[in-house]
Amino acid sequence: MAKKIAFKTLGCRLNQFETDSIVTDFYNAGYEIVPFKEAADVYIINSCTVTNQSDQKSKNTINQAVRFAGNKGITVVTGCMVESQKDILENRTDLTYVVGNKNKSSIFSLIDSHFKGEIIHPTDFKQDLFNFSLVEKGFHTRSMIKIQDGCNNHCTYCIVPSVRGMAKSRNSDDILENIRKVIDLGFKEIVLTGVNISRYHSTNHDFESLVRQILNLNGDFRLRISSIEPDNYSDSFIDLFENPKLCHHLHLCLQSGSDDVLKMMRRFYTVKQFRSFTNDFKQKYPDFNFTTDIIVGFPGESERNFNETYEVAKEIGFSHIHTFKYSVRRGTIAEKIPEHIPEKVKDERSRIIRELGEENKLRYRQSFIGKEQVLLIERPQGKLGALGYGEHYIPIALQGLKPERNTFRRVKITGIADDAEKTCLAKLKE
Known about the structure:
Transcription Regulator spoIIAA, single chain, Rossmann fold, five-stranded parallel beta sheet, five-stranded mixed barrel
């Protein structure tokens, strides 16, 4: 009987890609992939540690897995929490394996060896940040492609460089070959992911030239860029979005709309530069979709600083805002900055930004009523019909029809659903 294995992924798209790759390894070897809360022989948690809330979610998930596994199951913890709390996790007697990011791609070999009776330690395998299998069987219809890992920015609040390491870029030839293969497998949407992909640089390509090479590949697919930093771009980068294969959406990380706070965060741009970048895009592509991250309650953030952030977020009109309350990360420079903000103030500022984000989201999606989108069908969604995303990364429900999954359909937006996500409703273009 096939061994059953369950996964839980927390945090970023890079973690999601890495989990999907590991899932493929087990699937191809004959293991049965089951939901996390079902009985399984192995539970794998890909953890996150970017905030205190992420730590708590990771701890709760690990404890859940331990309970599910009981005395017979195997529990594996990997991801960034392993890098920040390795000693604590390795000292737990209820965890079978604790695997760092550099050995994450070897998890299948580790578990398969375990069931064969071999005694192996995670560090016995070769360390390789890019040695992940081609994703054939994952949890997503999109194919995420890891092009980069690590970060050299050292923002004062961020623990990522210490848990992911310094920036490293994947060989461009390997990336292009990986994408050719997933296109041949039938994937219709490619998502470039990494920790700081705008700083991608290999022997022959920077980020812009890599994107250009991908767009020149043959096949019926579209390309989406995941989270990027708002610096180091030229007019020629903006021109790339004239290609119909490149989706008109960027998750552009603002963090704060105050220059004073940006300096304390050690970000590498000003509010004026950020505005200029988004304005240049919207002048050329008026419907372009920007989403963002905002940290509220950074040490020393005054009421004036916060109001500046609010006004910038309102002016740019981000269709979605990931709102984070600042949380202390041990070992970061921000830990030692005076004037830490009380939790009640952070709660209130977070509420205000989240409400603005919801207003922006509704306004942006309503602007598409009567317009066309190319919808990639992902799954059925009850009474709403077939659900997927348009090229502007807005969720769309095609009503009355349930076409084949992973196919493109040109649709016309007719309204907005009364649901929490504010899904756009659509019909096939006549």
